[in-house]
Please model this.
Amino acid sequence: MTKAVKQLHLAAHFPGVNNTTVWSDPRAGSHIEFGSFAHFARAAERAKFDFLFLAEGLRLREQKGRIYDLDVVGRPDTFTILAALAAVTGRLGLAGTINSTFNEPYEVARQFASLDHLSGGRAAWNVVTSWDAFTGENFRRAGFLPREQRYERARTFLHTTWELFESWRGDEIVADKASGEFLARPDVGRFSHVDAHFDIAGQFDVPRSPQGRPVIFQAGDSDEGREFAASDADAIFSRHSTLDAGRAFYADVKGRLAKYGRSPDELLILPAATFVLADTDAEAAELAHEVRLQQVSGATAIAFLEQLWNRDLSGYDPDGPLPAVDPVVGENTTARGRASVRMYSDPLATARDWRDRAAARNLSIRELIIEVTGRQSFVGSPATIAATINEYVQADASDGYILVPHITPGGLDSFADKVVPLLQERGVFRTDYAGTTLREHLGLPLRPPAGSRAHAAGARAAS
Amino acid sequence: MTDPGAGQLHLAVALDGAGWHPAAWREPDARPAELLTASYWVDLVTEAERGVLDLVTIEDGLSLQSADRYQRDRRTDQVRGRLDAVLIAARVAPLTSHVGLIPTVIGTHTEPFHVSKAIATLDWVSSGRAGVRVRVSARPDEFAHFGRREPPSGIEGVADRFAEAADYVEVLRRLWDSWEDDAEIRDVATGRFVDRDRLHYIDFSGRWFSVRGPSITPRPPQGQPLVAALAHATVPYQFVASSADIGFVTPHDATQATAIVTEIRALQAAAGRASETVHVFGDLLVYLDDSQGLAADRKARLDEQAGAEYRSDALTFTGTAAQLADLMLSWHSTGLTGFRLRPATIPHDLDQITRALVPQLQRWRAFPDRYSAPTLRGLLGLPHPANRYASAR
Model:
């Protein structure tokens, strides 16, 4: 039996506040002016992408007690910029990261329901949790939560917003001018939720939105993160990897769905991926190296090394060998507000690995950092990149990609203009939007209102 | 008629659902089924811009609308359900180009850090037309929606809520200044994107919250977006005088208007802000028609449909656009710098404002023919503000 050809999904990640984004390039534009966001969104929509993705960070990153100044710094408010982008696009999904720690369910639910209304059903929420005291210093609900409790709180937060979204079925607004009946009944939006984290009750004030609730993303490769995605998310925002590692991750996550009564196509695997595109593969390889040099300056290389070593290494020459001293183990006091630092669960082992690699190939600090951090996912001609992406998707290493260009705002243009047509020719990517909502673009089941017959059937199937 | 050459006044319109009258949604031209759509709000704000209005405000709350100010009701004959006002403003911003956008936020329950960057972002997406009207929450059911604390009660409770709102605005403002205008340097030679000496911790510490900063969003185009508040008594007048750029007040005659403006000016001086521009706009609920009789009839019909007379906190005006223009100019000597009109019904009264009232005022040269500045601060005569942290460097 031959397997059906999969349709792939594509999304565009607005270049982030990290060293993937090359701000020093003469073509690099503003990271805050609306024109940049509008340009980027329009390019994505012109190419019929599923959605645009916006990350969030609620405190400026610091290194050695000072604001980190080597990367792009500064970004807009997620909800506000997505609502504005809904005005300059018509079909493109609008996905944003919103922290479940430094927000309250009632407010986040009304913001997402509002965004879904104002965009005609295009809202998506990447639910993240980061209960660190450093970020908490900007919020009322400051403080710290042990790692093992963070997912539990995130899950509770998410489920609480679902209760709010589901508190309106969609048939409450009658608005009959003749009879004077606006609402079908007075108790619309009623909810009551009490658990270890939240004790809230009342009436939700935003009527049911076009998608019922936003598409839910989960980002995080940990075991808890995978389980959270399998039980609750519509898509998982993961890291791109090799074909084999991607297939293993894909099989693992999809394999977890059955125990929640969900089918494999109810959770999409969408890794973030960078790319370098040129007319030929050889030119692309050369260009990729140039981009890596732009992304990792000598100062950036030392900064990366300090993040792992957890100590001041400013005296080292980036073009010289790695430090002989070992990393400082324990709480990372050198770099704060940086997600990547959490990856270094065993700094001593990672440092050993880096030293071995540098020694084996006689690499300087900068060359080593270029080697071990953020190499481009896809490098080649349009034909090569189209073929590679399709190969990964058809081989079940992913269901598509969230592309992260390195130039703002024009970094997506070449991909949109040159690679997408090739994928369309292959018949693996849409030539136009078939639906109006993001849920439709992603092929996700529509959510029937709570209490309806379809909902009851779905609930039985899931139990 | 009042002296037509008297100085130009400022004009705002307060948008809320289908209009301020509870039966507004039943009018033949009302669009009650579209209140949750983007196109409805784009049409309204575009109409306001057609009338060269300085700004629109957008009402909001963190609970269902209610005929009772202090608790929810069980009515099904009035508009219930709405969208987040900041997001409505953001959705409208790219499709308009001159009119100021002042959504409402509830300071009692929201995070000043989030709202500061949201309004800064609104300022970015509108190229300098953002403001924010800060409300306090008095409804126990709104407290229950957040579940963080019990609603404060009594006179002390009112004072506390406004004291918290003052702290809240202080944090908004400090965060807007936490980036200097020229903090982004993109110095390729040294590899530095920002000059971190031009980014500032705000280190606010108060009774209700502490905020470290800086903002994650660069200083918005206006530097300081406008802060507005509605005020009916001394405690909120104090809030306007110490924290806001625009106060919306509800005098019922010229004498009251004079008294309110005098009180706010004294409080403003006491707060050390005598040299700053603080606008005081009179709120009016308006029913506008081609004759006073028609307007009164329409009000009576709406009241009958609603089952009771709609009593507003603001003065209710029924009459023609020319009569309203006359009233507004006759209040000129009260010291009010403008008016915020609450259309009883939308689109009818909104259109009357933009297509009858404004042309009348323009004929009397009491209102501009076109927008004269690219930012809301510019329209209201406020300069680009110095950054409170710039001199500390």
